[in-house]
Amino acid sequence: MIEAELSRSVVRWCPGATGATAAAKLSGGASQETWRFDITHPDGNIGAILRRSPKGYGAAPTRAAGLAAEARLMQLAFEAGLPSPRVLHVLTPEDDLGTGFIMQRVEGETIARKILRDDEFAAARPHLARQIGGVLAGLHKLPQDRLPTLRTRSATQEIAEFERDYRSLNWPKPVFELTLRWLCNHDPGPSAETTLVHGDFRNGNLIIGAEGLRAVLDWELAHLGDPMEDLGWVCVNSWRFGEIDKPVGGFGSREELFAGYEAAGRRCDPARVKFWEVMGTLRWGIMCGGMMQRFREGPDHSMERAMIGRRASETEIDLLRLLAPRGR
Amino acid sequence: MQDEPTPIELTKAVADFLRNDITPLISGHQAFKLRVAINALDLVTRQLTLEEGNDATEVARLRTLLGVDGSVTELNRALAERIAKGEVDLATPGLAEHLWATTMDKLAVDQPNYASYKRELGREG
Question: Of A92, A172, A303, B103, which one has the greatest count of Cβ atoms within 10 A?
C-alpha cells in the first residue's frame, strides 16, 4: 500500500510529521500518476500531492520535460511569488516510490465548466484574463540561468513535428492540410527572444479559487521557445468550453490578456499570438487523432479515448473560423 | 436484406434504456462512463441517419472540385494531396465552400452541441 511508503518518506524530510494518510489516486496513465494524501502532523495535517512515475517507468516521452524538471520549475515559480504549489520533496531512491516529487496541495477548482458557470467564481471571472496575462509574464521572466535543462523548440520545428504526427495517423484531412500550408506560409521565424514556455497553460491545468488564479500546474510540456506560444495556446477555442466570444479560456478578451502581460513589463506580439492559436488548434486536433490511434492499438481500449477521436472535427470548424471565416 | 428493426431503431432503443432506466441507478465515475457510452450510441445513431446523404453530397462536390471520380475516402485523399502540394488553396473557387459544408456535416454527427457549430448553423439560418 502506498501509504506505508509515503509514511516512511514524510517522516524523513518533514519535521514533526508522524505519517501519511487518506491517499487516493487522482489520475494515472501508464507512466505517470497523481495522488493526493495528507501528512499527519501534531500541528494539523498538511494537504499534499504526489506526482510520480512508478518504479520501472523511468523513461519519459520525448516531448516531456521530466518530473525532476517539473519540480524545479514549480519551485522557481513559487519562489518568484507566482501562483504555484510549493515543492515539499523530490523523491529519492530511499523513498521507494519511483521518480517524481511531493508538493503542497492547493485547494480550488480545475474543472472549466464549473469555473465558467458556478456562482462561487463569479467575482473572479472578469479579472482572470488580465491576471493570466500577468502570471504568464512572470513565468516568462523566470531567470534562465536557474532553469533545468529543457528542449528548445521554434515555430519551424513545431510545424515539422506536427506534420509528421499528422502524416503518421494516415488520416486524410483537407482542413488540417490547409492549416499546415497556412502555418508554413505564416511562420514568423525565430522569436526576438527565447524564454521559458509553460507549454500547456490552459483550463484544466489552472487551480482557480473565489478570488482568482491560485496555482499553475503540469509543467510536463515546458520548453524554451517563443513566449507568445503560451498566449496563443490559452486562446485556443477548445479551452473556452462554450464561451466562444471570450477567447482567453472563456474568461475574457485578448486585449485584457495583453494588458495584464504588458503591465508586468513584457511586450506582446498579437500576430505571433494568432499564429500560435492556429498552431494550438491544429495541435489539439492531431492529439485527438492520437487518442483514436491509441484506442485502436491499445493498451488503453477505452470508450473515453475513442470518443475524443470524434472531437477532431471541433478543431476543424475552429480552424475554418480562423482561416476562412464566413460573413459576419 | 436484413429484417427489421433497423440499426438506427436498435441503437436509439439501447441509448434510451441506458439514459432513462440505468442513469438513475449509477453514480460517481461509473456515471461519467455511462454518459460517455450514451453519447457514443447517440453519435452512432446520428451517423447512421445522416452519413449516406452527407457522403453523397460530399462526393458530388469533390468530383466538381477535382475533376476526378472515386470513393469519398479516395477523393478526400486526393484533395488532401493537392492542398499539400499547393495546387489547391483558399483562392480556388469552391474550396472554402466545400470545406465549410463538409465540416458542418461532420459536426452534425460528431458534436451537434459544440458552440462554434451552433454559431455557424445560426449564420446559415
Answer: B103
